[in-house]
Amino acid sequence: MHPAPSLILFTVLSGLGFGLIAWTGLGLGPAGIWYAWTVSVASGALVAGGLGASALHLRRPDRAWRAFSQWRSSWLSREAVLAAATSAVFGAYALTWIVTGTRLAALGLLSALLAAATVLATAMIYTQLRTVPRWHTPLTPLSFLAFAATGGLLAVLSLSGAASRPLTLLALALLATAAALKAAWWHRANATRRPSPEATTALGALGTVRQFEPPHTGRNYLQDEMIFRLARRRATAVRRLAAGLGAALPALLLALLAAVPATPGLAPAALLSHLAGLLFERWLFFAEAEHAVGAYYGHR
Amino acid sequence: MTTLPEPSGVKLGLVIDLDICVGCHACAVACKEWNTAAYGAPLSDQDPYGADPSGTWLNRIHSYEVTPEDAPQNAPPQIVHFPRSCLHCEDAPCVTVCPTGASYKRAADGIVLVNEDACMGCGLCAWACPYGAREMDAAEGVMKKCTLCVDRIYNENLPEEDREPACVRTCPANARHFGDLGDPDSDVSRMVAARGGVDLMPEQGTKPVNKYLPPRPKTRETPPPARPDAEEAPGGFLGWVDRALALLD
Q1: Class of B12-213 per CATH?
Q2: CA distance A256 to A261
Q3: Does the CB of B29 have a partner CB in chain A at under 8 Å?
Q4: Which residue of chain A is at minimal alpha-carbon distance from B83?
Q5: Cβ contact (<8 Å) for A208 and B66?
Q6: Chain A with chain B: Cβ pairs closer than 8 A
Q7: Where residue A240 sits, what CATH number does that domain have?
Q8: Do B127 and A296 touch (CB under 8 A)?
Q9: What is the DSSP string of A176-212?
Q10: Assign residue A202 a region: left if phi > 0, alpha if psi is -120 to 50, beta otherwise?
Q11: Which chain A residues are closer than 8 Å to B19 by Cβ?
């Protein structure tokens, strides 16, 4: 699949933003008004940035409001509805916190649940597609949720500057979980194949099918969008960058932070490194995904 | 509404005979011609006369070379021409993924259509389709797909013989057929039963309405050798010519 920058930014930034909202809603972070401001601005910027990036993917963004209508059947519509609901509920939570200085636990818990549901809906947009065998697994939403939880907690640690050893260790445990889920996802993905040309043409009973002549001499939308061909010889290198920056380096920084609490700069460095790793991970998520339609063009 | 309707009794669709199709692309051209001026936005082309032309088509004709597993050495492969367009699936994933309600399946006859005024051009329906039946129009920014020529088949301004999809009407080899696949006694259903018509990728769970009739099996004989007497010296008049030419050889 074509790794559109808009979709990479959308899934990474909104995942981080909803992760931050979820942990804040659960009561993490200091109670002070300044922190309420910081966390509201940060989560608002991340969520708005992510959703704004996703709007760039639309050819007719003026009609995006219609995406709120089909939540009964469409995961993309559910994602839009849940993202708006999460933003509204967390907005109310943040506003009462800023104005009155109290954090309403019920409102916080609700925004945390909605934030988790939004991340799940984002992942299901891809998971639901049988046409892309790599994505069609429960490991996809599990890894999206684990990345959002990890990134959100790293953001809490970075913004609050809290010297909390339990939270640092929790972040480390979440990071390890996310890395393990992604490793399992990659292990499975390596074994998946798009349907063969014999299967897509139903000509398998006659023999081996090879493309003799393509249907058109120029490019078309299907090829640009769904038959993106990654330079496979560099995939391993990108995967190493994703694992190194996304998991190994932040784990090392978190271990240091747990050993020497309140060392300035460690938590933000871990967050930035994790984010950079996620951008590589998400690029591979799209670029390596093989769509069934490629088989009609002779790809195996 | 992008929830799917109850399966309709009438299931309009195409039957494509891969044994007959000669790969002339006339159906694709007729489709482009009709649909660029009919339902919805035109089927645009980008850089059509330039170095890198591309454009929107609702019907694409592939050609494949099929080699039997147990084919003798140097046996010629079989060429199969393969028109690919929307199969108007009963369980159409392109409809249920649509976030805006633009993509829908008609309850009365099962035709899958896009309400282009409601399409925001996200492209998810094209991702959900295993058959590559949907193409985003680069000029209009909305999703285009086969309409089964909904503006022909019910069009009483057209002579009755023209009230079928443009691809079917134009096919010079009669490889394409249009009808009600929900009616077991229709011509198309009988054809499917007689020829063992198949679904494409049934494992995707889409329940396509369109059927493909597989090519009939070819005889496996290697081509007959050249005439055995071709190397022998001919007699009679040809023999005289041969001897005369030999003097000049």
Answers
A1: alpha beta
A2: 8
A3: no
A4: A215
A5: yes
A6: 206
A7: 1.20.1630.10
A8: no
A9: HHHHHHHHHHHHHHHH--PPPHHHHHT-TTT-EEEEE
A10: left
A11: none
Residues A199-224 have a mean pLDDT of: 94
pLDDT of residue B65: 95
Total number of domains constituting chain A: 1
Q: Is the pLDDT of residue A105 over 80?
A: yes
Q: What token pair was written down for A88?
A: 């509204």
DSSP B143-212: EE---TTHHHHT-TTS-GGG-S-HHHHH-TT--EEEEETTSTTSHHHHHHHHHT-B-S-GGG----SSEE
Contacts of A84 in chain B (CB under 8 A): none
Q: Which two tokens stand for residue A53?
A: 């990036």
The 3-state DSSP class for residue B229 equals helix
User: Considering only CB atoms, which chain A residues are within 8 Å of B118?
Assistant: 63, 66
Contacts of B98 in chain A (CB under 8 A): 70, 73-74
The 3-state DSSP composition of chain B as helix, strand, coil percent (nearest 5) reads 25, 20, 60
Beta-strand pair B112-114/B103-105: antiparallel
pLDDT at B226 over 70: no
Whether A77 has its CB under 8 Å from any CB of chain B: the answer is yes
By C-alpha distance, the chain B residue nearest A210 is: B65
Pairing of strands B54-55, B45-46: antiparallel
Interface of A with B in 217-236 (CB under 8 A): 217-222, 225-226
Interface predicted TM-score (ipTM) of this complex, two decimals? 0.94
Residues 6+ apart with CB under 8 A from A173: none
Confidence class for position B220, pLDDT limits 50, 70, 90: low
* Cβ-defined contact of B64 to A205 (cutoff 8 Å): no
Query: H helices then E strands: how many in chain B?
Result: 7, 11
What's the pLDDT score for residue B77?
A: 86
What pLDDT does residue B239 have? 87
Return the domain boundaries, chain B: 12-213
Interface test with B, best of A56, A72, A131, A224 (most B CBs within 10 A): A131
Question: How many angstroms away from the CA of A228 is the closest CA of chain B?
Answer: 13
Q: Tell whether A204 is within 8 A of chain B (Cβ).
A: no
Supply angle C-alpha A175, A178, A182, rounded to 5: 140
Higher-scoring residue by pLDDT: A247, A163 = A247
CA-based nearest residue in chain A for residue B201: A200
Domain holding A137, by residue range, is 5-210+217-297
Across the interface, do A69 and B199 touch by the CB < 8 Å criterion?
no
Q: Which pLDDT belongs to residue A162? A: 72
Share of chain A above pLDDT 70, in %: 99
Per-residue pLDDT, A102:
94
- Give the nearest chain A residue to B118 (CA atoms): A63
Three-class SS state of A222: helix
Q: Which amino acid is at A102?
A: T
Q: Give the minimum alpha-carbon distance from B239 to chain A in angstroms, rounded to a whole number.
A: 45
Q: What is the pLDDT of residue A263?
A: 84
